[in-house]
Amino acid sequence: MILLTGNDLASGDVIWWTGSGWSRHVGEAVDAGSEADAILARESAARNVNAGYSVEAEATASGPLPLHIKERIRASGPTVRTDLAINADIPIVKA
Amino acid sequence: MYRYDQYDQEIVDARVEEFRDQARRRLAGEMTEDQFKPLRLMNGLYLQLHAYMLRVAVPYGTMSGKQMRMLGHIARKYDKGYGHFTTRQNIQYNWIKLEDAADILADLATVEMHAIQTSGNCIRNISSDQYAGAAADEVADPRPWAELLRQWSTFHPEFTYLPRKFKIAVIASEEDRAAMRLHDIGIELVKRDGKVGAKFFVGGGMGRTPMIAPEIRDFVPEEELISYAEACLRVYNRYGRRDNKYKARIKILVHELGADEYRRQVEEEFAHMKTLGIDPPVAELDRIRAYFADPAYETGLPEAVDRSDPDFALWLDQNVVAHKQPGYAIVNISLKPTGGIPGDASAEQIELIADLTERYSMDEVRVTHAQNIVLPYVKKADLYTLWQQLDEAGLGASNLDLITDMIACPGLDYCSLANARSIPVAQKIAQRFADPQRQRDLGELKLKISGCINACGHHHAGHIGILGVDRKGVENYQLLLGGSGAEDASIGTITGPGFGEDGIVDAIEKVTDLYVSERQEGERFLDTYRRLGMKPFKEAIYG
User: Which regions span the lipid bilayer (chain B) (predicted)?
Assistant: First the structure.
């Protein structure tokens, strides 16, 4: 599956496309499929997302999970400051 | 310490207001990200892995208590309560909001600080020896020279768009505490016939092609410092590779031309530069130098220090360094507690250091390239009281230059360029070697970790270096041995195949065990490695 991500323009927070808007929780992200480029273009122009791009992900029992470790850390927060994590339960290293 | 004159303050204030308008226009949709990105980068504002990151310049690592307190204020008010001191003697904040960025820059400007030229292909913050002005072994205080270079390089119109970023370090002693020869230009102040001048080394650096800068000129008189530096930059600006980012640093140009040909071209340009009269009058350097005059030392102070508290005695032996002035000492505050994040300090710790700076160090504090803090002017009589307050705040780690005093870049926990995490590896190593006696037995051992080939964690210059790489989406760590950023500068060699996160800690232990069994009297780890070579270490690691 393809997830869309980027940063909130004003706060810089990592955000994920939910199908109707943007969330800070990757668990609410949806597969953008073949619409990815069109959605990114539209949402970037509206300044709903900054520096947006798409990432590959897999569906898991607890929701979508990016495939690459960098994106999982982006979704989770710094692994060395779990007190600041947004989605601390995300497995960083794949089993 | 240097104080802004009216001109300094005006240009910094003007830049804040210019950026405020740029940020407003970006937020209002009057600029695209592509248009805005180079503007925010010119003001030190990156977009990192989790949020905007602001890098604040600390010129040659020197601050007053008031300036340090402002860094704590920013951490508390605008960030998540902490900051990260870097290998460029700067500080970075990881959680900045674009809508706050101009206010932060305005706050910084009230204490004569800014984030200008902490990014981009320009001359970055000038770094220096953290013991400047306090060390007994220097020929002169290097900071007036660094300040002159700062003024020359700030907003220099010719060097705003260099082929690549450009880093300069200035030291003034044979002992190199600033990794001088791993800079684009390294300057060592030397004395000749009673006059102080500058020895120039050009073309050093780390990154994917590490190089030690060759000596380009053995003596540049102080009245010609700017002309010579400008000549070095002009040759680079003209011939540096702009077509390939990975070959754009000056080290590649110097290497490709050869030091002799680069020197010849610089001398030719220098001869021309001298006719232009761009060097400031010596009176200007004298004016700057007056700001760095020795503080008002007290005389007749006691030399003896009560060592009856064993924990204090450990700290005294490891973190306190001899001062040029009788009765005083240089104090290193380690930002490497066991299990901590190298270089990180909380707002409360930063504010405490600001208080201690004012109370015990004649209102001066330094940031080191090893991501520690220095109080350069402490009375020996105050050391115990000072240590008690540091220790209570988690700042009393007694590990300067030991294996747990690691340099580590933010790595994949924060950095969008990184391939692997650095901090968790640093924490595991610190846990493995937590026993203070074991650390001391190993002696001086500089371990440096980078999360990618850009080498922000100086892994090439570590006695033991670790480089994190991405191996098919999995973090992997290469081990290097034999590097040094000191006066005996050298580039480390990769031992062989890499390791996982736990395997790299085991490998380091095998290496240090071999050192312990093979060392000769007085040998540091690096000395033993250089005597024995890679072979026995490789056998110990890989069997």
Answer: none
Pair of tokens at residue B412: 């994949």
**Domain B134-290 CATH assignment equals 3.30.413.10:** yes
Amino acid symbol at B195 = K
Domain B310-392 class, CATH top level = alpha beta
Residue spans in chain B of domains classed CATH 3.30.413.10: 134-290, 412-542
Q: Which residues of chain B have pLDDT under 70?
A: none
- For the beta carbon of residue B344, count every other beta carbon within 10 angstroms: 21
Tokens of A7: 């940063």
**Chain B residues whose beta carbon lies within 8 Å of the beta carbon of residue A80:** 341, 413, 421, 423-424, 427
- The nearest alpha carbon in chain A to B418 belongs to A70
Place of tokens 């892995």: B49
ipTM score: 0.96
pLDDT above 80 for A28? yes
CATH fold of the domain at B412-542 = Sulfite Reductase Hemoprotein; domain 1 (3.30.413)
Among residues B173, B239, B149, which one has the least CA distance to residue B203? Answer: B239
CATH 3.90.480.20 segments of chain B: 6-109
User: Is the minimum CB–CB distance between B475 and chain A shorter than 8 Å?
Assistant: yes
User: Nearest-CA neighbor of B412 among B452, B459, B378?
Assistant: B452
CA distances from B175 to A55, B136, B366, B486 (A): 49, 11, 18, 7
Q: Where are the alpha helices (DSSP H) in chain A?
A: 36-45, 69-76
The pTM of this model reads 0.97
C-alpha distances (whole Å) from B537 to each of B494, B501, B528 are: 11, 19, 10
C-alpha–C-alpha distance, residues B212 and A74, integer Å = 35
pLDDT at A81 over 90: yes
- pLDDT, one tens digit per residue, over B36-62 is 999 999 999 999 999 999 999 999 999
CATH 3.30.70.3340: which residues of chain B?
A: 310-392
Please give the mean pLDDT across all residues of chain B.
Answer: 97
Quick check: A95 pLDDT over 80?
no
Q: Does B193 touch chain A (CB under 8 A)?
A: no
Query: For B294, which DSSP code?
Result: P
Q: Give CA–CA dist A47/B501, Å, rounded.
A: 39
Tokens representing B333 are 């505050």
| Cα distance between the two ends of chain A | 19
What distance in Å separates residue B56's CA from the closest CA in chain A?
Answer: 18
- Residues in chain A within 8 Å Cβ distance of B26: 9
pLDDT at A79: 96
Domain B6-109: assigned CATH number: 3.90.480.20
What is the distance between the alpha carbons of residues B17 and B1, in angstroms, rounded to a whole number? 26
C-alpha B488/C-alpha B130 separation (Å) is 18
Q: Which residues are CB-contacts of B196 (< 8 A; sequence separation ≥ 6)?
A: B139, B140, B189, B190, B222
- In chain B, residues 312-351 whose CB comes closer than 8 Å to chain A: 341
Instruction: Tell me which amino acid residue B502 is.
Output: D
Query: Residues of B with CB below 8 A from A11's CB?
Result: 51, 97-99
Separation in Å, CA of B32 to nearest CA in chain A = 8
Q: If you average pLDDT over residues A6-19, what whole number do you get?
A: 98
Residues 63 through 92 of chain A touching chain B, CB cutoff 8 Å: 67-70, 73-74, 77-81, 84
A12, A67, A79: residue with CB nearest B51: A12
pLDDT of residue A87: 83
